[in-house]
Design the sequence.
């Protein structure tokens, strides 16, 4: 599903160039649940941004679902993001003047799905995350865990190939974190490929594979038996 | 533009940010409001000054016979030139396209006038129906002389208000239809006029030119001629046109009256336009001045909208980043911001336009001031401002929209 080879990325910080990714080779198969770990500055967010077509590598190749992602103009990048990827963020990034339902249906709006179908499909995903009753609420009327679940429903709404989650539990307490992880595991069990960036070991242990990043290179890549989040809730 | 989904999207955005929208719209509304009021006042001022300088239409041309200054073809100098009705007909038929108003003017001083036991001495004029427009007089009662009166050589008369005051105790309606005696001839009063030119002109009486010629001079003397030519927006063009007209008429008159071609004394010619330059320039200047101020006001409104839109874009940076991450294309972001901007400027502009027009409509006619008369804005001006608004909305929205489309989702979504 995802294949990256010899990926390099530097940032220009005034006079100095900061080499963030120093040759990453990495492959994710369909249906995997992968966590990318590393301390801050290890390059894990940069890697996720490149995977999310929000940023572009200086060197190396990135293939997503058989499509080579390179030198895309903004228009095509937007199309690919919409078609292939669903994003889950640490700070949820819901649009605060739109209801939960409107937030979830936004990716569908950009796909050109008509209003009626948009709302039907969005309701389906809200039900899936257990928030059908909250569809008319604004984000600030929801708890942190609920917001993240709306964000997950939104990421799922366009039925993407891959879910990319950047510290999805970073703003949540332990109990809520596990609830969100339980949901993520459930979605993965249904076959969705999911990548999670995290620095919390307990969260990483709930994925099927842990990739450790340090100073821009992968130092460790282990498959594990995931702990069931439902046991901790 | 007619994408219903986008309209829904915009209405939702606007409905959920009412304060922001109202603040944005207010600057445009007030800009348009001020522009329309200014233009209305300018129009009122124009009418006011026109009235102030009234009395004579600025393009009036005047021709009269005088005494020749040079001998010519065996004719002695100091010969009295009398313009006759044939001259008049020649001029009016050869310059039909240029002439706006026309009249010959035959004067008779010391006309002994009486009605029942009252009497007075006034000046009697034989004129054509256009004379009223030429003198900027207006009807108070009854009607003015008509073409029919002229053809029938009718013994009818139009009186100035002072005469009505003397003979009919100022009761205009009572004068109509009464028969008065002027120099032993009976005339029927058909109308009463008042002249803006001054009180003296309200002691004049007007009767058909043909009637006068028949009674007093038998076609040899038609008096003086007055014309106005069709107006021109541009002063220099108008002046050139009227001078050319004057020269051609004089040349014709000299030929038909056996006057030396270089005799400048024989025909009196007066072109009122030469002295009218200031009024012309003032009107043009005023127009430019008010449009200038109005447009600058509107411009500041537009800059205001642009400014607010930039703030909005900044405030919505994160939202735009989210939208882009979810698959919004730059084009759709530009369209969203532009659409919103045009919608807000146009709607609020219409509000300003409507309020200003209503105000002018209600208050305008009640303004009684020597300098401002019935301020009003023409429909075409309203249409122009509306068009300007839509363009302005696009302009105000464009820079912020471009800025928005260039927002990088990765920067927008970075956690603070």
Sequence:
């Amino acid at each position: 599903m995802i294949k990256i080879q010899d990926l390099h990325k530097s940032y220009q910080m005034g006079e100095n160039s900061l080499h963030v990714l120093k040759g990453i080779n990495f492959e994710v198969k369909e249906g995997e649940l992968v966590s990318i770990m590393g301390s801050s500055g290890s390059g894990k967010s940069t890697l996720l941004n490149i995977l999310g077509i929000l940023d572009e590598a200086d060197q190396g190749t990135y293939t997503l679902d058989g499509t080579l992602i390179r030198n895309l103009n903004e228009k095509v990048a937007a199309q690919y993001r919409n078609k292939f990827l669903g994003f889950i963020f640490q700070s949820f990034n819901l649009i605060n003047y739109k209801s939960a339902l409107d937030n979830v249906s936004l990716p569908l709006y950009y796909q050109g799905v008509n209003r009626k179908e948009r709302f039907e499909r969005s309701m389906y995903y809200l039900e899936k995350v257990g928030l059908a009753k909250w569809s008319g609420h604004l984000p600030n009327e929801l708890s942190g865990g609920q917001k993240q679940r709306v964000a997950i429903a939104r990421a799922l709404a366009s039925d993407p190939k891959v879910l990319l989650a950047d510290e999805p539990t970073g703003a949540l307490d332990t109990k809520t974190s596990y609830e969100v992880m339980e949901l993520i595991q459930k979605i993965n069990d249904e076959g969705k490929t999911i990548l999670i960036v995290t620095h919390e070991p307990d969260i990483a242990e709930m994925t099927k594979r842990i990739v450790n990043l340090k100073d821009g290179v992968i130092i460790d890549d282990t498959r594990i038996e995931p702990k069931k989040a439902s046991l901790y809730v | 533009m007619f994408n219903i989904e986008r309209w829904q999207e915009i209405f939702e955005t606007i409905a959920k940010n009412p304060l922001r929208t109202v603040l944005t719209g207010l600057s445009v509304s007030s800009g348009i409001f001020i522009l329309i009021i200014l233009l209305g006042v300018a129009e009122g001022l124009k009418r006011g000054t026109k009235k102030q300088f009234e009395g004579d239409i600025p393009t009036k041309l005047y021709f009269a016979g005088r005494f020749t200054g040079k001998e010519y073809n065996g004719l002695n100098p100091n010969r009295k030139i009398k313009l006759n009705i044939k001259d008049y007909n020649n001029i009016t038929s050869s310059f039909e396209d240029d002439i706006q108003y026309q009249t010959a003017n035959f004067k008779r001083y010391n006309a002994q006038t009486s009605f029942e036991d009252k009497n007075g001495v006034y000046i009697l004029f034989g004129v054509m129906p256009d004379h009223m427009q030429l003198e900027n007089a207006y009807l108070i009662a009854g009607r003015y002389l008509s073409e029919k009166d002229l053809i029938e050589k009718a013994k009818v008369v139009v009186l100035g208000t002072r005469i009505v005051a003397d003979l009919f105790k100022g009761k205009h309606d009572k004068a109509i239809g009464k028969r008065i005696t002027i120099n032993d001839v009976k005339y029927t009063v058909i109308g009463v006029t008042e002249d803006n030119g001054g009180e003296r002109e309200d002691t004049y009486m007007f009767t058909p030119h043909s009637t006068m010629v028949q009674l007093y001079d038998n076609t040899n003397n038609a008096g003086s001629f007055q014309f106005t030519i069709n107006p021109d927006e541009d002063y220099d063009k108008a002046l050139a046109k009227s001078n050319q007209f004057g020269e051609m008429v004089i040349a014709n008159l000299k030929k038909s009256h056996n006057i030396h071609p270089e005799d400048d004394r024989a025909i009196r010619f007066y072109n009122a336009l030469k002295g009218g330059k200031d009024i012309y320039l003032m009107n043009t200047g005023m127009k430019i001045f008010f449009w200038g101020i109005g447009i600058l006001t509107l411009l500041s409104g537009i800059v205001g909208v642009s400014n607010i839109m930039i703030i909005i874009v900044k405030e919505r940076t994160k939202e735009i980043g989210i939208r882009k991450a979810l698959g919004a294309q730059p084009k759709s972001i530009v369209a969203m911001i532009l659409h919103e901007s045009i919608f807000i400027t146009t709607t609020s502009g219409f509000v300003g336009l409507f309020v200003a027009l209503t105000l002018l409509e209600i208050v305008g006619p009640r303004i009684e001031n020597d300098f401002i008369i019935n301020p009003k804005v023409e429909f075409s001006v309203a249409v122009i401002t509306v068009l300007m608004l839509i363009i302005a909305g696009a302009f105000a929205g464009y820079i912020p929209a471009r800025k928005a489309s260039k927002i990088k989702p990765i920067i927008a979504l970075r956690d603070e």
Observations:
- DSSP finds 14 helices and ten strands in chain B.
- The mean pLDDT of chain B is 83.
- The first helix of chain B runs from residue 4 to 16.
